[in-house]
Amino acid sequence: MHIEVAIEKYLNILKRQALSSRTIHARKIRLEFLTIYLTKIEKKDIRSVTPKDILQFKQFIYQKPWQQHTVYGVLEAVQNFFNRLHREDLLFINPVEKVLKASKPIPKLHKILTITEMKQLLNSPFERFVKTGLRDKAMIELLYSTGIRLSELRNLKKSNIDFKDNVIFIERGKGRKDRVVPLGRHARRALESYQTSLRPRLIHKKTEILFLNKNGKKMDINMPAIVLKKYAKLNGLKKRIYPHLLRHTMASHFLEAGATISIVQHVLGHASPETTQIYTQMRPHELRICYLRFHPLEKNKLFQKLYKSGLFFRSGGKA
Description:
Layout: H1 3-16, H2 21-40, H3 51-62, H4 68-87, H5 115-122, H6 133-146, H7 150-155, E1 161-162, E2 167-170, E3 179-182, H8 185-202, H9 223-234, H10 243-256, H11 261-268, H12 273-277, H13 284-294, H14 301-309, H15 311-316
Antiparallel strand pairs: 1-2, 2-3
Helix pairs in contact: 1-2, 2-3, 2-4, 6-8, 6-10
């Protein structure tokens, strides 16, 4: 079976699994490196690939000037590809079985906004923008209140908001899974203002989509980032602010306030608690605080008073 035919069969299997088009496209791009390599060693039939070929392919990928997560992505896609074909009986022998196990890179600590920075963003002068201000405020409040993904924000419908029970329904989120997420009172008020005062003026054609652009259409994928950049600049915030940063920020603040991993996992829609675990990593200033608080040679009465009063965090900008 020709490599390109095998890849096409594999992608069709993923489509039947109801994976998102974005995920399928990413797998296809990564598998192109396998096609390039097998063409280079003149092995176009997938059934002729041996464990030795896979080991050499690994070296081929490791020689690329890529970041660790990119290398992992390609090797994981190739591993999944052969494993799946073998499970579907499209391959009699699985060449990756004993020689390829993609190791996840050590996750980096997510960058987040401090509580002070987040409050600055939420207190932006939205009223200066008559045509979009209420929408922008509702969007930013919602991103921070719920931690939803950019794709989930763009696909949100009016009917997904339940003001009676203060929850939002995420339909077919990542992995095509539905979930219910609590809605905070600030986000609720901002959404109500947007829906009653501005959204009716934006609509040109009947639509259920909640967040609309000036032309009454669904926002394009770049608009939320552009909106956040505008308000960050107005507030003099130097950090690069984008929708997913608010997701990381919400998760970190939520955990710091005492939420459990399982609750944050559900709210964010993570399939595994391992994904959520990254938010529990201690930041350098937090490590220093713990050190000063607990080390017998370092702790002092003044620090203990500051710590208990919360002044230490407020002056330093708790992350």
